[in-house]
Amino acid sequence: MSHPIIKLFGAERCHKTKYYKEFLNSQNLNYEFLDVENNEDYANELRELYQNKRLNFPTITIGEKKLRNPSDEDVLKWLKKHESD
């Protein structure tokens, strides 16, 4: 079974981004951290996820699902849901 691609859009200086990095690491999840302040391509990718084209971070994507400032429970729920697909 393949696992969904997990991306964390955020910024190194952001305390919420740091929290999500620690959370994802604590769950032993492979994810890609995309620093939207240091890479314009990542910033543009994040802007494309939102109608308002703003840098709404932190945002976590799990496959096609977009989560903005999710609770730990929401992240785990969507991971479980994706595993059962």
Automatic annotation (TrEMBL):
This is Glutaredoxin family protein. Gene3D superfamilies: Glutaredoxin (3.40.30.10). InterPro entries: Glutaredoxin, Thioredoxin-like_sf. Residues 6-65 form the Glutaredoxin domain. Coiled coil: none annotated.
